[in-house]
Structures are given as structure tokens and as C-alpha cells.
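Slide 14.
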Amino acid sequence: MQIRKPVVAGQFYPGSRSSCVAEINEYLQRKTPGEPLPETIVAGIVPHAGWTFSGSLAAMVFSAVKKRHEKVDTFCIFGAAHGYFGNTPAACDKGFWQTPLGEVAIDEELADAVLSSGEAVSNCDAHSSEHSIEVQVPFIQHLFADAEILPIIVPPSEQAISLGEAVGEIVSRQDKKIVCIGSTDLTHYGPRYGFTPMGTGPDAFKWASGVNDKKFIDLALKLKPKGMLTSAAENCSACGAGAAAAAVAAVKKLGKTKGLLLAHTNSNEVMLEKMATASAESVGYAAIVF
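Slide 15: predicted structure.
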């Protein structure tokens, strides 16, 4: 039996079951916007930084799904390609993933359908050190105990769109409830990231969040996956543009016409709020449902 072991438990999120559950429950207390949720939710975009910075936003998305769908059979999770340099999306198509909350099974039936489309390849090794999917799994285990997952790493190429379209078409033919999740952080701003087009300091962070992030977010809300890829490539506005674009392409295939922004923040704002200190860098985070 193939089991993918956790690689960032105890770093990006707690390393024990009790601590994970306590932190997730704390995040679930945060209020979502007053605007009504869609009647049905087919997808979401979540951040993937350490939970201290972005866990509350990820929780918003999974909580919104729970409010609309008590039972979800499978989450198809599109992840960022931080350490995978292949051109084709890489699916972990067999076995189980393990976190401090236990093991969750891969939906091998859905995996076979996606691989048969030719838009992804089987490559579980590509997931061995990737955190962008792993940090989402405990939320799924806590809120949807019987759900399975299909993890797919998605490079930021136009194949992200064809993959998303293929997944959307496959999902539309399924009797079970499948939700697609795209995992990305937004603008990585500051000297450490080599990206300081507006200089440094508070005004630069306002630009990164209010202009650079917002352009990418608006393209996602308007279901423009090609524009998302282009914007991220030109403006360094998302590290998981392929993952987010795949989710949005699936959304379009499933008949949705727009997204709903639940929250948008950045690591500097979080540090000021939680630690009363500023940083020379800032990373953006958004929670979106469709």
C-alpha cells in the first residue's frame, strides 16, 4: 500500500492530531462575508502558506463548501509546482495520503479518468516534497471525514486550462459530488523574493495587495483562466497560477459564471495583527469560491 507521508506537519501546520483539530476549529470561528454563498459550490481557490498566515482563509473555503454540501465524495486538489519542473500536470493517482489526522484515500477511479484524458501523467514522486496540497488535507479530513482526494501538481502553462476543462467535463458526468480546489498564494513582494517594482515599505505593500493581487483575483472572479496565467507571468502575482487557472477552467466547464471573494489579506497584515510587528516582505492570500 502506497502512503504519502506528511512533509510539512510541525512546520506549516501542527504536528499532532489534537493541535490540528484545535487550530482548525479556531479558524472556523471566523465570520465569512455577508454576501450569500452560491447555492452550489463546485470549486475554490485557497492559499497554502503556513496556517498561522493563511489557515483562516483556507478554512473559510472548506467551511463554505460544508455549508452548501454536507457530503463531498472527492476533492480534486490542484497544487502549485514549487519543486516539480515537468511540463505536464502530475497526478498522485494511487494509495493514501497521511497527515496527523490519519490517512485519506486517493480517488483512483477519478484519477484513471483524468489520466485517460491525456492532460496529466501519473507521478506520485512529484508530490514527495510539495506542500501546497498537503496543507489543505487536514481541513478536508476534519470537515469531510469520508471524502477522498485527487492531488495534481499543475505547472503554470496553458495545459493547466486544458486539464481543468477535462476535469470539469469528467466531473459533470459523475453521480458523486466532486469539488475542485486550486492552491495558490499571491504576490511575493520584497527583497527576499527579488520583486520590488514599487520600492519598499507600506505603500509598496499596498500596491502589491491592492493592485497586483487584485488584478489576478478579478480575473479569477470573472473566470478568465488564460488571463490569470498571463497576469501571473507578467506581474509575479501568483506562485500557483496553473493550479488556480485549472480550477477556474473546471468551473467554466461546470456552468458557473462568476466567483465570490470571501477574504483577501497578506502576510504583513497578519504579522501586524497577530505579532504587532512589520516585515520587509509580504505575500498575498485570497479565499474564493465558485
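Speaker note: The chain has ten helices and twelve strands.
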